[in-house]
Amino acid sequence: MNLTELSLPITDPTWIFLIVLMIILFAPMLFNRLRIPNIIGMILAGVLIGEHGFNLLARDSSFELFGNVGLYYIMLLAGLDINMEDFKHNRKKAAVLGLLTFSVPMVLGLIVNTSILKYGLATSILLASMYASYTLISYPIVLRLGVSRLRSVSIAVGATAVTDTLTLLVLAVISGIFHGSSGESFWIILAIKVFAFGALILYTFPRIARWFFRKHDDTVMQFIFVMVLLFAAAGLMELAGLEGILGAFLTGILLNRLIPSISPLKSHLEFVGNAIFIPYFLIGVGMLINLNVIFGDWGAIKVALVMTATALAGKWIASFITQKTFSMAASERNLMFGLSTSQAAATLAAALIGYEIILPDGSRLLNDDILNGTILLILFTCTISSLTTDRTARRLAMEEPVTERDPDGNQEKILIPLANPDTVKDLVCLSMAVRNPRINDNLYALSILYDSDNSKAVNTANRNLDTAARTAASAHVDLKKLSRYDVNIASGIIHTAKEQEITTLLIGLRRDTDSRNPIFGNLAVNLLRSLSCEIMLSRLMVPINTLSQIVVAVPPKAQFEAGFGRWVEHLCRLSNSLERPLHFHAHQDTIPLLRSLLEEGPRRTEAIYTAMEDYSHIRELASELDDDSLLAVISSRSGTISHDSSFERLPRLLGREFTSCSLILLYPEKYDDSGQSLS
User: Fold this and answer.
1) Which of the two residues, 533 and 370, has the higher pLDDT score?
2) Is 642 helix (H, G, I), strand (E, B) or coil?
3) N or C: which end of the chain has fewer CB within 10 A?
4) In what helix (H) or strand (E) does residue 183 lie, and over which residues does it extend?
């Protein structure tokens, strides 16, 4: 395109994409200085460049495409970031809030629409349903501030599915009535399609995803696979007569357990969405807003003010009733209100569909005033939602207490010796799941070399370290690479652990174990004799994100060991990262202490407790374990309080009886010769 051919709006794809990228880059810089949330900044930028602003860009098919992807992305990330264990506890609260955010605005809207705006019944019902729906526009704020797993967020996110489903059903019914398809057959066909496509998604997607993630560990392939599932679910929901956003949200929930927060794939999904697709969607919403209606159309202003006031009042009343019903704090009510206030996707869809419906008298079901008022409603509610959510989330983030089950957790350092290239990613992912996330530099990867090693061995060691560092970096975790020449592997690990003051040593075990080939050899024996730190010997048969359960065997008197608090904390972090409950088999004297540690404070970990007198019954656990299970066996070193002579036979027993499941054999840290614990 020559300069002489330049005209507004710009239609050249290169310049369109350049302008959008510049907005995504510079808008946050500007609006952060003005203390305006980035979400509002993107919407206002869309207003300025759109046809109702400076007319730089037209809202062409690229904004519809990328905007649709951005909207699906918001719903996908919302589903992925729900803490499923918390959601189970809060599902009743989420259902109550969802029903209230639908019913209260509906009732309030019907009264206002018929008495103040003087609309007919059909128009009033559809318009009232628009007050009820909401889009999680401000969800990226709680994600960025690290409070996305608070129960108030889980409740608001879960309520989205209830509210938007009911809203879209109202839209489907209204649309069916005016298109002559609201008879008995309409309801039967709609119910059959929703049930069939919903069952297809619920049954097949988790199974296909688990199989795929086991077979393919390339993050790019996994990312594309998630996108395929996302759009397949959205498309199936649209075929069923509902909106694709429900399919996107359902995909996030179904993949939730397979894409934990510590996985590189989760980081890549968030990065791409927050960098491109979500800003594109927000800019596209802004381009719809016509600020000229504020100055030239009193009817639209009146409708917009009434719509906004009714929608805000309905959402605040719903949040208030939920708060009082379940005795929640005022800050939780404000966060639920902030998240449930923003109107965008479903509201706009309903407005456009209602605008296209022609009544028998030739008028539109939703007239021009309602359409323009809807655009202003989107601007007002998104602004209020973003400001409320940002202010409340910041306050809650600063109020969140920092509690550790391990009192020495701030001194944590985890060392991962690397040898087998096939296990590097699994070991790093496991270390990220158990590490203290509040410490930036607590992971170390080590390669041991001999003086006689050739260049091939050196290159392999360097590749292992680079793979470990890339895996950690893709999840925004720093990993320090260490390389050491020593007389043997055990000596190199021991010297490094002492020099770096390592608190946890994580070692990979070979997978081909049987009665003739015990689960570990002389290396582990030498390390246990020479080091006092916690040692975790792991054999991961499948990627940790595909594990279905975590079973923990605890010996009697384990609570008297120096490292009791540390290993409990590590398993709790693993449980919370993977959102799998811990199933403890422990002595009846140990269970109360485990229960008190797991249930203290806001960082409650789900667990099941079964009494087990000693390890003579450990073979019985094989019946409840399958290929998707992880068995964590707590052992101890010779001479410690909980040690028993039968522990010497544990490695061979585990290698013989538990050949198919993943395994962690954990030796807690012990007191050193001075009578002090390592840390």
Assistant:
1) 533
2) coil
3) N
4) none
pLDDT digits (tens, 9 = 90+) for 260-280: 877 888 888 888 888 888 888
Predicted confidence (pLDDT) per residue in 29-82, tens digit: 887 777 676 777 887 888 888 887 888 888 878 888 888 888 788 778 877 876
pLDDT-derived band at 515, boundaries 50, 70, 90 = very low
Q: In the chain, where are the structural domains located?
A: 3-178+266-399, 409-667
Q: Are 52 and 292 in contact (CB under 8 A)?
A: yes
pLDDT in tens, 124-178: 888 888 888 887 778 778 877 777 778 888 888 888 878 877 877 787 777 667 6
Fold of the domain built from segment(s) 3-178+266-399: Na+/H+ antiporter like fold (1.20.1530)
Secondary structure string (H, E, C) spanning 533-588: CEEEEEECCCCHHHCCEEEEECCCCHHHCCCHHHHHHHHHHHHHHHCCCEEEEECC
Cα-only R_g, the chain: 29
Q: Among candidates 167, 154, 147, which has minimal Cα distance to 78?
A: 154
The answer to whether 466 and 472 have CB atoms below 8 angstroms apart is no
Domains 3-178+266-399 and 409-667 share a fold: no
How far does Cα 347 stand from its chain's mean position?
25
Q: Inter-axis angle of helices 244-255 and 61-80, to 10 degrees?
A: 40
The string of DSSP codes covering 225-266 is HHHHHHHHHHHHHHHTTS-HHHHHHHHHHHHGGGS-TTSHHH
Q: Which residue type does 143 have?
A: L
* Residue 260: half-sphere exposure toward Cβ, Cα within 13 Å: 22
Q: What are the phi and psi torsion angles at 483 (to 5°)?
A: -130, 135
- Does the structural domain 409-667 have CATH classification 3.50.50.60? no
pTM tops 0.90, yes or no: no
Q: Quote the pLDDT of residue 408.
A: 60
